[in-house]
Design brief:
This protein is α/β, with parallel strands linked by helices. The chain is about 55% helix and about 15% strand.
């Protein structure tokens, strides 16, 4: 039975870097944000979004993601509605993806909202990626060409590191590539030993 390793971390913690490192070591990785973006272009999801948010978030049939983000960003109720459309679609897609990778002893399921969405319940182990606040802020400002205030707003809307770490099996401190590589190797070694014993 393929083990599901949940990978999470706050915005700017560098979980994508960690995910890519696992991928380079031959572990299949499912990036929920990427897959959700693709699924948001599917007819069934677009239809539900149109029913819920109206044609104002579309332009000539194309979903205006920025406009939709503006609507849900500070409105928990509307965000909940959007999540109730997108999350089940991602969940179903991941199940199908998992079947394609069932010959692998373990896979990585990467999600920024692993705990918030309840997806952590499906995982056998959980890795939380952490980094100092200032490094996280800097990374996001450079990546998203945004402001410090907007980054702090997004951080405020996520579970904090302490909450995530208390529910995780492994913590990776991501201050640099050199720092994370030995941590990943250590986790893989642990998982392989566990697998051999089971």
């Amino acid at each position: 039975m393929t083990k599901i390793i949940g990978l999470t971390g706050g915005i700017g913690s560098g979980k994508t870097t960690v995910a890519n490192e696992f991928l380079s070591l031959g572990v299949p990785v499912y990036i929920t944000d990427l897959e959700a973006k693709k699924l948001m272009q599917s007819d069934s999801v677009l239809k539900q979004i149109k029913e819920e948010f109206g044609s104002a978030v579309f332009d000539k049939g194309v979903l205006l993601r920025d406009k939709l983000s503006e609507i849900v960003f500070n409105d928990d109720k509307r965000l909940g509605k959007l999540n109730s459309i997108v999350h089940p679609a991602v969940k179903q897609h991941f199940r199908e993806w998992l079947l394609e990778h069932q010959n692998n002893p373990f896979v990585i399921y990467e999600s920024a909202i692993l705990f918030e969405s309840g997806s952590y319940k499906e995982c056998d182990y959980i890795i939380n990626v952490v980094a100092p606040l200032e490094i996280r802020i800097q990374r996001v400002i450079e990546r998203d060409k945004t402001t410090r205030e907007k980054v702090l707003e997004r951080i405020k809307n996520q579970w904090n590191d302490e909450e995530k770490s208390s529910k995780s099996d492994f913590i990776i401190k991501n201050t640099s590539m050199e720092a994370i590589k030995p941590e990943i190797v250590k986790i893989l070694k642990f998982l392989r030993i566990k697998q051999m014993k089971s």
